[in-house]
Amino acid sequence: MRPEPPLLQFAHLLLEQYLQPGDMAIDMTVGNGHDTVKLCKLVGPDGVVFGFDIQEKALTEAKKRLQEAMLKATLFLDSHANWATHLPEEEIVRIKAAIFNLGYLPGSDKTVITQEASTLNALAALTEKAPNALIIVVAYPGHPGGAEEKQAVQEFVESIPSTTHRALHYGLINHPSAPTIYALIPQKRNTEKQQSP
Length: 197
Ligand code: SAH
Fold this sequence. Notes:
The protein is about 40% helix and about 20% strand. It has about 200 residues and is of the alpha/beta class. The longest helix has 15 residues, at about 5-20. The chain starts with a helix and ends with a helix. The structure holds S-adenosyl-L-homocysteine (SAH).
């Protein structure tokens, strides 16, 4: 059994600490929609949530979950590698959080997995275009390709200068197949409202 719940709760705790009502957030791997629902609850009715997944099945499941909770998100059937092309340029700087829950869709085809290249592409674009966003990546080393992807994410996160973000990792060091949570926490919280004239 994958020891997911306490670890994933930590990811949600980070989001809770960081997101405020009215914020904009992205779920980069919608899957069954659990993280999308969490983001919608945190940003509230005045906030905006975008989501990406390459599987129609995932979006259908997530839409059902959102409807049941009476929440709204804008979901795209596309790779997160293309996330920036779907968002208006002027909105991108408003992004306050993004979460990647990597791997395969639970309860579905285990061969459709996130890929190192698109994951890194999306991550690099986020740190560059949305410097005020908290970025969380949950990486799973237990499936084929997962360990390599996790390693690539770790190297990327380690390469981010401490002047822009604090890079955090959290996991079970005595459980090799357990997921690791990586977080890039911006050094400066966007105080847009105070800064504007
Ligand atoms: N956060 C989800 C779990 C996500 S599972 C939950 O809590 O239920 C990982 C998801 O990533 C799968 O649904 C898979 O289809 C999706 N995925 C794989 N490659 C992707 C890509 N390049 N862009 C966006 N989503 C992708």
